Amino acid sequence: MIAELDCRDARLARDRASAAVEAAEINLAFAQRQADRIRQLAATNIASEELKDTRVTDVARLDVALETARTALAETGLAVERCRVIAPFAAYVTAKRADQGTRVQIGTPIVELTSQAIEVQARVPLGAIWPDAANLTFQSAMGVAPLGAVLVASTVDSGTGSRLLRFASPERLLPGTPGQLVVADVARALPGDYLVERDGVLGIFVAEDQRARFIPRPEAQLGQPVAVNDLPMTTRLIDAGRFRVRDGDSLEIN
Length: 254
Hints:
Strand content: 25-35%
Distance between the termini: 76 Å
Largest sheet: 4 strands, antiparallel
Shape: elongated
Helix content: 25-40%
């Protein structure tokens, strides 16, 4: 409960509505008994059909009056329930707009809430992609928090050429904490500097049996890490001179 309002007038209105329902029930029960008696008398021609129709009409009118009274009671009951302001979710109170004794009406803001179900929002370039198995973390002054899958990907911001992503966080974070999204690929990869181009194909050079061997990387992109999961950990890379060497060249390894 966030606040409790002074609702003595609402409770009095509810009590009046409850009494009106009881009165309507008594009137309806009385009208029904009268209608039943007139119906029996009309069957023996003691009472007229007109009187019978009048009593039936009275029952229908009082039945409607009872439903109206019950609706009024429900409305006043709802007003009493609104006297206790309940947070709709687990939240932090970030601002207080009213103090004890402040006169308010239904709809007047009294507090501002921030949900405790924290999510991390990150604006990333439109073309940013990463493997499904990548480790996503949120790094801030509070430390490193792991992130779950993307909850919602918003539309593209044409002004910045980026999109807003929302991630679930299993760890409790403080709302409004600034930080950065860090994507760590669990796959083995080489820095993009190792890429060279031969005959219009990107790849890397390795040393095998004292000779240079060009290994194409057709999925590689300039400036991006190069996936090498398919290569043994013992593979020897050519670093110095990789831009001059050709496939099949003899090597002198120092």
